[in-house]
Amino acid sequence: MNLSTPKSDFVDVNGIRLHYLDWGGNGPALIFLTGMGSSAYIFNKFAPRFTGKFRVLSLTRRGQGDSDIPETGYDVDTLTEDIRQFMDHLHVEKAILAGHSLAGVELTHFAGTYPNRVEKLNYLDALDDRREESAIMEQNPLRNIKIKREASAPHTFEEYIAIVKRDVPSFAEIWSELWEEEFSHGVKVNEDGVYVDKMPASVENMMIKNLIKEYAPKRVEAKIPMLSFYAWKKPKLSNVYTEEQKAVFDQFERNIAKPFFKSLISEFQNRFPHAKIVTIPDGHHYCLIVQEELVYHEMRKFLLD
Predict the structure, then answer these.
(1) Degrees, nearest 5: CA angle 297-262-290
(2) Per CATH, which fold does 7-304 belong to?
(3) Which partner for 85 in 13, 126, 172, 189 could form a disulfide, CB atoms 3.0-4.6 Å apart?
């Protein structure tokens, strides 16, 4: 895999310093926004493909990657203001916003708040209304099963990555040079010489509370062109679970989780009847990586229309 070497820089906005990548290009501004925990580097293979027609950028949200990690500001209004001031700093009057995962909340809220500064919206498996998700996940039969793992204190980046691959099979099966680069910007070495996540649990909890459990999508009055990808694939379970546990989980996925997922698509389409929906039945949450060609061609067609 050949990764690009974009311009890496910082902007001082809203009282903090945020990291961004700039791949250059000519044309309208296309800004990629990350999912929870990710940095701008997660787009370093996908985003450069658009530089022929667009100026391509990606912003790392506060609390993640190389951006500052303040104790506050993880509400949707502040995060939206971060994006607006980022655009102002780079003299971008109007942009196409493309967001992955959690960034769906920011896409909708930004469009509802600053409709005149949005040209198009692209949701990359990015839900903007997840208030009922917690109740659905409470029905997950594996939620209370305690997994016994050996205590780990990785003293090298390689050890840290080995633990990630062990604990998150969905990452392990799609691992590449891109993930090595992405994770290198999401970890730090603590005072004991151990590699740990940069993003504190307190920040993650605030974002879950503010952007998932309690966020009601802001009404978007303007009819902004939208493209929304939905990827569905049964999660791959670790072998620490028994066959019986896996079978019960399969039943939960089939009878509860998947129908709920389909209802979210319908709800989004009802709110935005003009939006184009692309479903990927055997997709991956990181569809921009795993189903890159499909996503790229659909997105390029949408952006150039």
Answers:
(1) 35
(2) Rossmann fold (3.40.50)
(3) 13
Residue range 47-100, pLDDT digits in tens: 999 999 999 999 999 999 999 999 999 999 999 999 999 999 999 999 999 999
Q: Classify residue 247 by burial, with Cβ atoms within 10 Å: 0-12, 13-18, 19+.
A: exposed
The strand pair at 95-100 and 118-124 is best described as parallel
Which pTM was predicted? 0.95
Provide long-range contacts, Cβ within 8 A and 24+ apart, for 199-207. Answer: 199/37, 199/63, 199/64, 199/69, 200/63, 200/69, 202/71, 203/63, 203/69, 203/74, 204/36, 204/37, 206/74, 207/36, 207/63, 207/74, 207/102
Q: Which residues of 161-182 are buried (b: 16+ CB within 10 A; e: fewer)?
A: beebeeeeeebbeeeeebbebb
